[in-house]
């Protein structure tokens, strides 16, 4: 009997109770307007039962818990990640090179890895440096990898699967809320994503960082009055040094 249950199609899909869904009663969230627009719902900024159910189904598809139907920052950010999954470099801002490049988009708070035009590591959400501790932009390279590391500057904070690319700044996992505040310059990600990235990258691999983390730079209202995604993200979040591109240098 147990074998039949384990091998059943419903079990393989991760079956859920088939009874009626619980009433969706979450109030309006800070990203109400934005998610209404993304899901083509009536754009009134007011939570309705239909909005709540649509948001909850979106959260379930994104594997967000709790899937309560509230239009919060995490739901909006994870939706943006899914939207760019198939072509994260559509804007062409991460240099296409013959070697592996870890692309860190500060404006959208997204990271992926590409070799040439092939994406080797799909886009994930990240958290970069907050005001006064901005992640340094430009070309870098991984110079040190430590699977287990604790910060010597910030109360022995755990930095699982650290890959240092510029001074004390590293790509690493975090156990804290990825969608609150910012780091002290490191590029934070879910611990599970950091583990996968650690297995992929090697010492000497290149990292390219560009853009401006939402909330850390001055912005003016666009002429059309529509705020871009990165500015909207800033509502939920509270030193340039361009190193030489090795491929460009070789072509000189």
Jot down its keywords.
alpha+beta; 5-stranded mixed beta sheet; L,D-transpeptidase catalytic domain-like; disordered C terminus; 9 strands; 8 helices; disordered N terminus; single chain; 4-stranded mixed beta sheet; 252 residues; 2 domains
Question: Which helices and strands, and how do they pair?
Answer:
Elements (H helix, E strand, L loop, with lengths): L1 H6 L1 H4 L19 H7 L10 H13 L11 H11 L16 E6 L4 E6 L2 E8 L12 E4 L2 E3 L15 E5 L2 E6 L12 E4 H10 L5 E5 L18 H9 L8 H5 L2
Parallel strand pairs: 1-9, 7-8
Antiparallel strand pairs: 1-2, 2-3, 4-9, 5-6, 6-7
Please outline what is shown here:
The chain is an alpha+beta fold. The protein folds into 2 domains: 23-82, no CATH class; 89-250, L,D-transpeptidase catalytic domain-like (Beta Barrel).
| Average residue pLDDT | 82
Using the coordinates shown, work out and report the CATH topology of the largest domain: L,D-transpeptidase catalytic domain-like
| CATH superfamily membership of the largest domain | L,D-transpeptidase catalytic domain-like
Query: What integer value in Å does the Rg equal?
Result: 20 Å
Write out the strand line-up for the largest beta sheet, numbering strands in chain order: 3-2-1-9-4
Based on DSSP secondary structure assignment, what is the total number of beta strands?
Answer: 9
Taken together, the total number of domains comes to: 2
């Amino acid at each position: 009997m147990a074998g039949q249950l384990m091998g059943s199609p419903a079990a393989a899909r991760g079956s859920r109770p088939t009874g009626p869904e619980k009433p969706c009663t979450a109030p309006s969230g800070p990203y109400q307007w934005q998610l209404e627009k993304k899901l083509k719902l009536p754009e009134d900024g007011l939570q309705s039962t239909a909005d709540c159910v649509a948001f909850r189904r979106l959260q379930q598809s994104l594997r967000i818990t709790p899937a309560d139907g509230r239009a919060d920052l995490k739901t909006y950010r994870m939706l943006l990640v899914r939207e760019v999954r198939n072509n994260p470099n559509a804007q062409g801002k991460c240099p296409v090179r013959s070697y592996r490049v870890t692309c860190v988009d500060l404006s959208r708070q997204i990271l992926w890895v590409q070799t040439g035009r092939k994406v080797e590591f799909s886009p994930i959400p990240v958290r970069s440096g907050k005001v006064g501790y901005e992640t340094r932009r430009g070309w870098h390279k991984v110079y040190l990898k430590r699977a287990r590391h604790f910060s010597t500057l910030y109360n022995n904070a755990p930095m699982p699967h650290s890959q240092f690319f510029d001074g004390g700044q590293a790509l690493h996992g975090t156990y804290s809320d990825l969608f609150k505040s910012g780091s002290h310059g490191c590029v934070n990600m879910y611990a599970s994503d950091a583990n996968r990235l650690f297995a992929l990258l090697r010492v000497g691999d290149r990292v390219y960082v560009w853009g401006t983390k939402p909330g850390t730079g001055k912005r003016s209202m666009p002429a059309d009055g529509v705020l871009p995604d990165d500015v909207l993200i800033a509502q939920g979040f509270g030193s340039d040094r361009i190193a030489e591109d090795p491929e460009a240098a070789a072509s000189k």
